[in-house]
Amino acid sequence: MAAREAGGVVFGKSADKLFSLSGLFAVYKPKGPTSAAVLNLLKERLLAEAGVQTNGNKRNQVLKIGHGGTLDSAAAGVLVVGIGKGTKMLRTMLAGSKKYTAIGLLGKATDTLDATGKVTEEKPYDQITKGDLETVLQKFTGDIMQVPPLYSALKKDGERLSTLMKRGEAVEAKPARPVTVYSLSLQQFQPPLFTLDVECGGGFYVRSLVSDIGKELSTCATMQELTRTKHGPFTLEEHALYEDKWTIDEIARSLEHCTSLLPGEPSHKKLKTEHPGEMAVSCEDK
Protein backbone atom coordinates (compact mmCIF):
# COMPACT_ATOMS: atom_id res chain seq x y z
CA MET A 1 0.00 0.00 0.00
CA ALA A 2 1.43 3.32 -1.01
CA ALA A 3 2.06 6.03 1.51
CA ARG A 4 -0.61 8.68 1.69
CA GLU A 5 -0.42 12.31 2.68
CA ALA A 6 -2.91 14.44 4.57
CA GLY A 7 -2.56 17.83 6.17
CA GLY A 8 1.17 17.97 5.50
CA VAL A 9 1.74 14.60 7.18
CA VAL A 10 2.95 11.58 5.25
CA PHE A 11 1.47 8.28 6.51
CA GLY A 12 3.42 5.04 6.09
CA LYS A 13 1.72 1.84 5.01
CA SER A 14 1.38 0.52 8.59
CA ALA A 15 -0.12 3.71 10.04
CA ASP A 16 -3.76 2.70 9.53
CA LYS A 17 -3.63 0.19 12.37
CA LEU A 18 -2.36 2.83 14.78
CA PHE A 19 -4.99 5.38 13.80
CA SER A 20 -7.79 2.81 14.09
CA LEU A 21 -7.16 2.44 17.83
CA SER A 22 -9.47 4.11 20.34
CA GLY A 23 -10.12 3.53 24.01
CA LEU A 24 -8.32 3.40 27.35
CA PHE A 25 -5.26 1.44 28.43
CA ALA A 26 -2.57 1.81 31.09
CA VAL A 27 1.20 2.19 31.04
CA TYR A 28 3.82 2.06 33.78
CA LYS A 29 5.31 5.44 34.63
CA PRO A 30 8.74 5.07 36.22
CA LYS A 31 10.08 7.36 38.91
CA GLY A 32 11.78 10.41 37.38
CA PRO A 33 10.02 11.67 34.24
CA THR A 34 6.84 13.72 34.30
CA SER A 35 3.57 12.19 33.17
CA ALA A 36 3.69 14.45 30.10
CA ALA A 37 7.20 13.24 29.23
CA VAL A 38 6.09 9.61 29.45
CA LEU A 39 3.14 10.36 27.19
CA ASN A 40 5.36 12.12 24.64
CA LEU A 41 7.79 9.18 24.59
CA LEU A 42 4.91 6.76 24.09
CA LYS A 43 3.58 8.86 21.22
CA GLU A 44 7.00 9.04 19.54
CA ARG A 45 7.43 5.26 19.83
CA LEU A 46 4.06 4.55 18.24
CA LEU A 47 4.51 7.03 15.41
CA ALA A 48 7.97 5.67 14.67
CA GLU A 49 6.69 2.07 14.62
CA ALA A 50 3.87 3.10 12.28
CA GLY A 51 6.38 4.71 9.92
CA VAL A 52 4.74 8.10 10.19
CA GLN A 53 6.94 10.84 8.84
CA THR A 54 6.06 14.46 9.43
CA ASN A 55 6.73 17.56 7.40
CA GLY A 56 7.57 20.06 10.10
CA ASN A 57 6.57 19.68 13.73
CA LYS A 58 3.00 18.45 13.38
CA ARG A 59 3.19 15.21 15.33
CA ASN A 60 1.04 16.52 18.15
CA GLN A 61 -1.77 17.05 15.65
CA VAL A 62 -1.39 13.59 14.12
CA LEU A 63 -2.17 11.23 17.01
CA LYS A 64 -4.78 12.00 19.65
CA ILE A 65 -3.47 10.75 22.98
CA GLY A 66 -3.77 11.93 26.59
CA HIS A 67 -3.51 10.70 30.18
CA GLY A 68 -6.15 10.39 32.89
CA GLY A 69 -4.44 12.15 35.77
CA THR A 70 -0.98 13.50 36.55
CA LEU A 71 1.37 11.31 38.55
CA ASP A 72 4.17 13.32 40.20
CA SER A 73 7.59 12.97 38.58
CA ALA A 74 8.93 11.48 41.84
CA ALA A 75 6.18 8.84 41.81
CA ALA A 76 5.80 5.61 39.84
CA GLY A 77 2.93 3.38 38.83
CA VAL A 78 -0.23 3.23 36.75
CA LEU A 79 -0.83 6.00 34.21
CA VAL A 80 -4.14 5.64 32.35
CA VAL A 81 -3.89 6.66 28.69
CA GLY A 82 -6.64 7.51 26.22
CA ILE A 83 -5.99 7.13 22.50
CA GLY A 84 -8.14 8.31 19.61
CA LYS A 85 -11.71 8.95 20.72
CA GLY A 86 -10.72 7.37 24.04
CA THR A 87 -9.32 10.76 25.03
CA LYS A 88 -12.93 11.83 25.61
CA MET A 89 -13.21 9.24 28.39
CA LEU A 90 -10.33 10.68 30.40
CA ARG A 91 -12.36 13.33 32.21
CA THR A 92 -14.21 10.57 34.05
CA MET A 93 -10.90 8.90 34.97
CA LEU A 94 -9.71 12.12 36.64
CA ALA A 95 -12.53 11.80 39.17
CA GLY A 96 -12.19 8.04 39.55
CA SER A 97 -10.77 6.20 42.54
CA LYS A 98 -7.05 5.51 42.84
CA LYS A 99 -4.93 3.28 45.07
CA TYR A 100 -1.42 4.12 46.26
CA THR A 101 1.34 2.64 48.37
CA ALA A 102 3.23 5.44 50.12
CA ILE A 103 6.33 5.42 52.31
CA GLY A 104 6.49 8.29 54.81
CA LEU A 105 9.42 9.55 56.86
CA LEU A 106 8.79 10.86 60.37
CA GLY A 107 10.79 13.74 61.84
CA LYS A 108 11.46 15.77 58.68
CA ALA A 109 9.44 18.18 56.59
CA THR A 110 10.32 19.52 53.13
CA ASP A 111 9.01 22.40 51.05
CA THR A 112 7.64 20.01 48.40
CA LEU A 113 6.27 17.54 51.00
CA ASP A 114 8.35 14.78 49.37
CA ALA A 115 11.96 13.64 49.13
CA THR A 116 12.76 15.97 46.21
CA GLY A 117 12.45 19.13 48.31
CA LYS A 118 14.59 21.04 50.78
CA VAL A 119 14.29 20.15 54.46
CA THR A 120 12.38 22.93 56.22
CA GLU A 121 11.86 21.41 59.67
CA GLU A 122 13.07 18.57 61.88
CA LYS A 123 11.33 17.28 65.00
CA PRO A 124 11.73 14.29 67.33
CA TYR A 125 9.58 11.23 66.63
CA ASP A 126 10.89 8.66 69.15
CA GLN A 127 7.73 8.89 71.24
CA ILE A 128 5.44 7.75 68.42
CA THR A 129 4.15 4.17 68.55
CA LYS A 130 2.47 2.01 65.95
CA GLY A 131 -0.77 2.41 67.91
CA ASP A 132 -0.47 6.20 67.78
CA LEU A 133 -0.14 6.09 64.02
CA GLU A 134 -3.04 3.71 63.53
CA THR A 135 -5.27 5.89 65.70
CA VAL A 136 -4.39 9.02 63.73
CA LEU A 137 -5.17 7.31 60.41
CA GLN A 138 -8.82 7.03 61.42
CA LYS A 139 -9.05 10.84 61.36
CA PHE A 140 -8.07 10.86 57.69
CA THR A 141 -10.61 8.30 56.48
CA GLY A 142 -13.88 9.21 54.78
CA ASP A 143 -14.87 12.67 53.52
CA ILE A 144 -12.23 15.12 54.76
CA MET A 145 -10.88 18.58 53.94
CA GLN A 146 -7.37 18.81 52.49
CA VAL A 147 -5.08 21.74 51.65
CA PRO A 148 -3.24 20.97 48.37
CA PRO A 149 0.57 21.31 48.36
CA LEU A 150 2.15 24.51 47.03
CA TYR A 151 4.31 22.45 44.69
CA SER A 152 1.52 21.01 42.54
CA ALA A 153 -0.04 21.04 39.09
CA LEU A 154 -2.83 23.32 40.32
CA LYS A 155 -2.79 26.66 38.53
CA LYS A 156 -2.86 30.35 39.39
CA ASP A 157 -3.46 32.79 36.53
CA GLY A 158 -2.79 29.99 34.05
CA GLU A 159 0.53 28.87 35.52
CA ARG A 160 1.25 25.86 37.70
CA LEU A 161 1.88 26.63 41.36
CA SER A 162 5.04 24.51 41.18
CA THR A 163 6.39 26.69 38.35
CA LEU A 164 5.72 29.86 40.32
CA MET A 165 7.37 28.39 43.42
CA LYS A 166 10.48 27.39 41.48
CA ARG A 167 10.78 30.97 40.21
CA GLY A 168 10.75 32.16 43.81
CA GLU A 169 7.42 33.95 43.54
CA ALA A 170 5.19 34.25 46.57
CA VAL A 171 2.34 31.76 46.36
CA GLU A 172 -0.59 31.52 48.74
CA ALA A 173 -1.85 28.10 49.68
CA LYS A 174 -5.05 27.06 47.97
CA PRO A 175 -8.00 26.79 50.36
CA ALA A 176 -8.84 23.40 51.84
CA ARG A 177 -11.14 21.41 49.62
CA PRO A 178 -13.26 18.29 50.13
CA VAL A 179 -11.64 14.98 49.21
CA THR A 180 -12.55 11.36 49.88
CA VAL A 181 -10.43 8.60 51.40
CA TYR A 182 -12.14 5.25 50.89
CA SER A 183 -9.58 3.24 52.84
CA LEU A 184 -6.34 3.95 54.69
CA SER A 185 -4.21 1.32 56.43
CA LEU A 186 -0.78 1.02 57.97
CA GLN A 187 1.20 -1.76 56.29
CA GLN A 188 4.54 -1.35 58.01
CA PHE A 189 6.07 0.70 60.82
CA GLN A 190 9.84 0.82 61.18
CA PRO A 191 10.61 4.26 62.65
CA PRO A 192 11.25 6.68 61.13
CA LEU A 193 9.63 4.98 58.12
CA PHE A 194 5.99 3.96 57.77
CA THR A 195 4.15 2.43 54.80
CA LEU A 196 0.54 3.23 53.95
CA ASP A 197 -2.00 1.79 51.53
CA VAL A 198 -4.43 4.50 50.42
CA GLU A 199 -7.55 4.39 48.26
CA CYS A 200 -8.88 7.84 47.46
CA GLY A 201 -11.00 9.85 45.07
CA GLY A 202 -9.96 12.49 42.56
CA GLY A 203 -8.03 15.61 43.56
CA PHE A 204 -6.34 13.92 46.51
CA TYR A 205 -2.66 14.51 47.34
CA VAL A 206 -0.90 11.70 49.20
CA ARG A 207 1.99 14.09 49.93
CA SER A 208 -0.40 16.31 51.88
CA LEU A 209 -1.80 13.30 53.72
CA VAL A 210 1.66 12.23 54.92
CA SER A 211 2.47 15.79 55.99
CA ASP A 212 -0.84 16.15 57.83
CA ILE A 213 -0.30 12.81 59.60
CA GLY A 214 3.03 14.11 60.90
CA LYS A 215 1.42 17.27 62.23
CA GLU A 216 -1.35 15.29 63.90
CA LEU A 217 1.34 13.24 65.68
CA SER A 218 2.98 16.46 66.98
CA THR A 219 6.00 15.95 64.75
CA CYS A 220 6.48 16.33 61.00
CA ALA A 221 6.65 13.93 58.08
CA THR A 222 7.47 13.85 54.39
CA MET A 223 6.73 11.36 51.66
CA GLN A 224 9.73 9.29 50.57
CA GLU A 225 8.18 7.09 47.88
CA LEU A 226 4.85 6.85 46.11
CA THR A 227 3.48 4.16 43.80
CA ARG A 228 0.05 4.28 42.19
CA THR A 229 -1.10 0.67 42.21
CA LYS A 230 -4.57 1.17 40.73
CA HIS A 231 -6.51 3.79 38.81
CA GLY A 232 -10.15 3.01 38.17
CA PRO A 233 -10.22 -0.60 36.95
CA PHE A 234 -6.57 -0.57 35.80
CA THR A 235 -4.07 -2.21 38.16
CA LEU A 236 -0.28 -2.07 38.18
CA GLU A 237 0.14 -5.84 38.29
CA GLU A 238 -2.35 -6.80 35.59
CA HIS A 239 -2.74 -3.95 33.13
CA ALA A 240 0.16 -1.47 33.11
CA LEU A 241 2.30 -1.85 29.97
CA TYR A 242 6.02 -1.42 30.62
CA GLU A 243 8.16 0.40 28.08
CA ASP A 244 9.17 -2.76 26.23
CA LYS A 245 5.46 -3.40 25.51
CA TRP A 246 4.78 0.02 24.01
CA THR A 247 3.88 -1.37 20.60
CA ILE A 248 0.81 -1.05 18.43
CA ASP A 249 -0.07 -4.75 18.80
CA GLU A 250 0.28 -4.75 22.60
CA ILE A 251 -1.85 -1.62 22.92
CA ALA A 252 -4.47 -3.12 20.60
CA ARG A 253 -4.70 -6.12 22.94
CA SER A 254 -5.02 -3.82 25.96
CA LEU A 255 -7.79 -1.85 24.29
CA GLU A 256 -9.66 -5.05 23.54
CA HIS A 257 -9.41 -5.94 27.23
CA CYS A 258 -10.92 -2.54 28.03
CA THR A 259 -14.43 -3.83 27.37
CA SER A 260 -14.19 -6.25 30.30
CA LEU A 261 -12.62 -3.67 32.64
CA LEU A 262 -14.97 -0.74 32.34
CA PRO A 263 -18.52 -1.08 33.69
CA GLY A 264 -21.58 -1.09 31.53
CA GLU A 265 -20.03 -2.86 28.56
CA PRO A 266 -20.77 -6.46 27.53
CA SER A 267 -17.61 -8.55 27.72
CA HIS A 268 -18.24 -10.16 24.33
CA LYS A 269 -17.68 -6.92 22.40
CA LYS A 270 -14.45 -7.12 20.44
CA LEU A 271 -11.99 -4.57 19.17
CA LYS A 272 -13.02 -3.27 15.77
CA THR A 273 -10.34 -2.41 13.25
CA GLU A 274 -12.26 -2.85 10.00
CA HIS A 275 -12.67 0.90 9.54
CA PRO A 276 -9.39 2.71 10.23
CA GLY A 277 -9.85 6.06 11.90
CA GLU A 278 -13.14 5.14 13.55
CA MET A 279 -13.54 4.34 17.21
CA ALA A 280 -12.09 0.90 17.80
CA VAL A 281 -13.44 0.22 21.24
CA SER A 282 -16.61 1.54 22.79
CA CYS A 283 -16.45 1.79 26.55
CA GLU A 284 -17.48 4.47 28.99
CA ASP A 285 -16.44 4.77 32.61
CA LYS A 286 -19.70 5.45 34.47
Record keyword descriptors for this entry.
single chain, 286 residues, alpha+beta, 10-stranded mixed beta sheet, 3-stranded antiparallel beta sheet, 8 helices, 24% helix, disordered N terminus, disordered C terminus
Model description:
The chain is α+β, with helices and mostly antiparallel strands and 286 residues long. The chain is built from eight helices and 17 strands. It has helices at 15-19, 35-49, 59-62, 90-94, 130-137, 161-166, 206-216, 248-261, and strands spanning 4-6, 9-11, 23-29, 53-54, 65-67, 76-83, 98-106, 108-110, 119-122, 142-146, 155-156, 159-160, 177-190, 193-200, 221-231, 234-235, 240-241. Strands 3, 5, 6, 7, 10, 13, 14, 15, 16 and 17 form a ten-stranded mixed sheet that branches. A hairpin with a 2-residue loop joins strand 1 and strand 2 (9-11). The longest helix is centred in the first third of the chain and has 15 residues, at 35-49. The chain is elongated and about 65 Å long. Residues 1-8 and 265-286 have low confidence and may be disordered.
